[in-house]
Structures are given as structure tokens and as C-alpha cells.
Model the fold of this input.
Amino acid sequence: QVQLVESGGGLVQPGGSLRLSCAATGFDISRYVMSWYRQAPGKQREGVASISSSGSTNYADSVKGRFTISRDNAKNTVSLQMNNLKPEDTAVYYCQRSGLTWGQGTQVTVSS
Done:
């Protein structure tokens, strides 16, 4: 069964850090582009970061220099390291496999 399960969300103060993980089952992540998206209340879902099968990465301008996407093919997981978090980063974060599969999401709240 193809499945993506996100974890690592929570409440953090502005300037803090969180590390999100996405555990994949039923397929080999090394063969796909893996991405993180987010959706804030009342807003459309937007792409945050992606990593190709070759390891090339892309980031939304709003997170460049603060977020880092990585993959561990041996563990079949994708991670998103988020540093210097801002209140506008508050959203539900989703893991995605090449437009085919979505996880259930994990809530990130940045607030003092």
C-alpha cells in the first residue's frame, strides 16, 4: 500500500526550528520527485520545497535560506529542516510524491 506519513509538527516560537519527516511505504522514494507543500488557513496549498531523484532541490522564495529538504533513501524518508521560523510559516505541511500521493499533513504553528 502506497502511503506517506508526516510527523514532527508542533508549536514553536518565532526564530525557532522544527524538523518534519515523511515516512514512505509501498514505493521507493529514490525513483520519484518528493515535495513538501503547505496550506495556511484560508489560503491555497503552495509548494515549499522539492528534491529530485538525483538530489537537486528547489525552494519557494519565501523559505530560501531557512528551510532544507533532504532524503534518506535507505530509510525511505524525506525531511524538511525548518530554521528561523516566522509566524507566516504557520500551516499544515504535506508530503507529496510526484503529484501522485499525498500524506495526511502535520500542523506547524509559529507563535509567541
